Amino acid sequence: MARFFPALASHQFIIFFFFIILATAADDHSFVRTMDRKLLGLKKEKLSHFKLYWHDIVGGRNPTAVPVVLPSSNSSTAFGMISVIDDPLTMGPQLSSKMVGRAQGFYASASQQEVGLLMAMNFAFVEGKYNGSTITVLGRNTVFSEMREMPVIGGSGLFRFARGYVQAKTHWFDPATGDAVVEYNCYVMHY
Q1: Which residues on neighbouring strands pair with residue 189, listed in sequence order?
Q2: Once rounded to an integer, what is the mean pLDDT over residues 30-49?
Q3: Which of 13, 27, 39, 148 could serve as a FRET partner for 69 with CA atoms 20 to 30 Å apart?
Q4: Which residues have a Cβ under 8 Å from the Cβ of 78 and sit 6 or more positions away?
Q5: Exposure of 166 by Cβ count < 10 A (0-12 exposed, 13-18 middle, 19+ buried)?
C-alpha cells in the first residue's frame, strides 16, 4: 500500500500539470488569432500618390473651419485654439475645381513658441473608385514652414491598413481672413 500512494501522487501531478497547460494556452489566445490576409480580401500592397488641394475657409458666410475653443488671450501663437473642419479637397488650387473629397476633423494650436498645429483629420473621398474610403492623417503642422510632413496612420474602405505620409505646402494664404489653400501630396501604402 505504501508504494501505491507515491504512484498516485505522481499521476495526480501529471494530470494537474496537463490541465494547467491547457487552461493557460486557452487564456493566452482566446481573443487573438493569426489570420491569412487573403481571408479579408487583401491582395498585394501598393503605393498610391494623391495630389489634392485643401481649402480652409475661416471667414465669410460659409466657413469650413469653425473655432470651438478660443486661444489664450496672451498668446502670440493662438495656443489652445481648437477648430473643427470640414474642408473641401479639390483637384486644383481653385475652389471651383473638381471636388474629390472633404478633410474632416480638427486642428489645435499646440505650440507656445511658433504656430504649430496638431492636425487630426480624415480625407473622406467622394469621387471615383475611392468614393466612401478615407485616409487618416495625424501629426504636427508648423504652418509657416515651407514644407510640412505628417503621417498617414490608417484608413477605411480601399485604404484599410493604410500607412504613409503627406507633405503639405501652402499654395495661398490670406492673413486678413485666415483663409488658406494648401497643396497636399499623399503617399499611401495600401492593399
Answers
A1: 47, 163
A2: 89
A3: 148
A4: 71, 109, 115
A5: buried
Burial class (CB in 10 A: 0-12, 13-18, 19+), 120: middle
Handedness of CA 141, 147, 153, 156 (dihedral sign): positive
Q: Going by C-beta distance under 8 Å and a sequence separation of 6 or more, which residues neighbour residue 127?
A: 98, 99, 100, 101
**What does the block give as the cell for 149?**
510632413
All cell numbers assigned to 27:
487564456
Q: For residues 133 and 129, what is the distance between their CA atoms, to the nearest angstrom?
A: 9
Provide the whole-model pTM. Answer: 0.82
Residue type, position 156, single letter: S
Phi first, then psi, for residue 48 (nearest 5°) are -115, 145
Do the Cβ atoms of 160 and 183 come closer than 8 Å?
no
> What's the full length of the chain, in residues?
191
Burial label, 171 (beta-carbon count in 10 A; 0-12, 13-18, 19+): middle
Q: What is the spatial distance between Cα 87 and Cα 182, in angstroms, rounded to a whole number?
A: 11
Report the alpha-carbon angle 182-169-83, nearest 5: 50
- Number of H helices and number of E strands within the chain? 1, 9
Q: Is residue 58 within 8 Å of 65, Cβ to Cβ? A: yes
